[in-house]
Amino acid sequence: MRAAQYIRIWLAGARYSMVRTMMFRGDFIMWSLVELFWMGVNLGLIGVIYQHTESIAGWGPWDMAILVGTSLLVQRLLMGFFWTNLFEMGRNVRTGTFDFFLAQPGPVLFMVSTRKIDLDGFLNAPIALGVVIYAVNQLGLSPTPLQWVIYAGMILCGLAIHYATLLFFISLVFWIQSAKGVEGGYFALNEFSRLPREALRGIASVVFVYGLPLVVVTNVPAQTLRHGLELHHALWLAGAAALWLSLAVIMFHRGLRRYTSASS
Amino acid sequence: MSLAKYRHAFVLGLQGNLVYRWNFAVRASLSLLHLAYVFILWGAAFSGQESLAGFNLSQTLTYFVTILVLQFFISAMNEDYEVSEEIRNGLINQFLLKPIHYFSYRFSIFVAARLVSGSLALIPLLLALPLLWPHLEYPTATWTYVAAVPALILSAFLQFTLAYCFGLLTFWFLEIQSFIILSLAVETILGGQVFPLDLLPAPLYELSSYLPYYYQMYFPAALLTGRIATPEAAIQGLGIQLFWVLALYGVAQFLWLRGLRRHTAVGG
Question: Is A184:B30 a contact under the CB 8 Å cutoff?
């Protein structure tokens, strides 16, 4: 398949999602508010802590706002593009509805991952970006356009890592018939992406910085805005994205081989 | 009113929830990850200073460990969805024809569910206890524990009643998930699950102490961890908590009666 065909299929899915969202406008508004409020909860925590201290692991309040904003931005994009699709995949494999994707004229992983988009996830992404820009201004930083482009690239790497880790764990459904607990696990682990790397020491550093690339996903882009590009960090992030994407794709296709239709 | 039927509902609730023991165990284990995050974040925030808002690091970490345990013992977890499902699927019809008080029936099951989830949550916590123990610092005054007993019972009642009210909204709305998640977000922050509420600026803390969310989780946790300073403050808190319990129970009864008027039972 050519790139244009992928784009056409994705646009058709996006159009379908938009029409569906507009049919349930009240729900859309409620869910957007829910997402917005949860973002407020995360920022509220930081705000309250900085009422009583000046620094967390050497990061001031606006540095932390860049970090938390970056984490929320990646999470919003994940929610918008992939979240529903991946969790529906877990359910579909269990119920046999997954056959529907096998019968479609396109690569299964692409069809599974991009069928729907969630507009309420996207709606809050600009707000998360707004938090980052506001914090950058408060710090008196003036990143160059190139720095912003690199930051955007790093956000995409972060999105790829989040997508890949989620796909990796959801693909376990081919073996264990249920992906329950993955959602809770994702949110529990994602909390670590809102921590400065310097706060993690010992075993926590080994697990959450070097093992799972949770801290890298947010700290590297945030540091790029604060202090400029550090090439080895950028390569680390890109390498982690490539590694996790490869692992997830292998895991998915291994699982796919095990899949036997459950429908009648 | 015979209590035997609710005892049976309680036993059925125990059996039903034991089926999901692994779900609770996984959830409890994941909450240890959250605890690790809390320890790292607050450890970094305390770095270089003895206390925040008059409490040291150990007292703050004790607060979060207590909140975590209470979540498994007194929080409403999916009671709102269960009530909602029973209304939507028409399963509620069977209760309308029998001499059973639906609120009490669901409350019996809630108590059983929390007994199971709370007990299971203790297992990973006990395993982690050697790591947690050096950071735990509970108050020595007896009155805090005496006051905490009714506060915990009322909190459980408050948690359940609020979830029950959200479940009853299904009489009016097909989809209530967004209401529940929005309420959860409010409860998470105003119930003191994200940070101890006494870290808020004084006027906001004062305001929060008049809201029901304060009494859902923060109040009993604050009593157990010495964040409520005097017996007088505890008694005043218990009074406000009782008011909210009664008020929400009234709202629940109102929603039930109004909702039933809208409800249409179909089927043979």
Answer: yes
